[in-house]
Amino acid sequence: MSHFGRTGPPDITDTYSLLVLNISFRTTADDLFPYFDKYGKVVDIFIPRNRRTGDSRGFAFVRYKYADEAQKAVDRLDGKVVDGREITVQFAKYGPNAERIDKGRIIEPSSRSRSRSPRRR
Known about the structure:
Keywords: mRNA processing, mRNA splicing, Nucleus, Phosphoprotein, RNA-binding. Helices cover 17% and strands 26% of the residues. The protein has helices spanning 29-37, 67-77; strands spanning 16-21, 42-46, 59-64, 81-82, 85-86, 88-91, 100-102, 105-107. The radius of gyration is 16 Å and the shape is globular.
């Protein structure tokens, strides 16, 4: 859920999204807000959850209205300890070039073949 309650998702067009990795599984949007609010107008904070369990997936998205504020947050918060964990803050990437994330960490792409046919030996 967003930091801004159940009023529905905010309008995120023309916003700058940051990916925050390695957050504690108990960290909430309310916990993150004071860290990020220091650097500009936070439009939204979203912490994805596991669909089955409802548990945090260990990362968050923080959206700013202005690029310079988002850049300031990246510069000042990347490597900072929040809730006992050293967080990584970077601009989020979307689409086919986006990183895959599991348990708050980026998963390196595997070089395995995607073919489902059995290998010839």
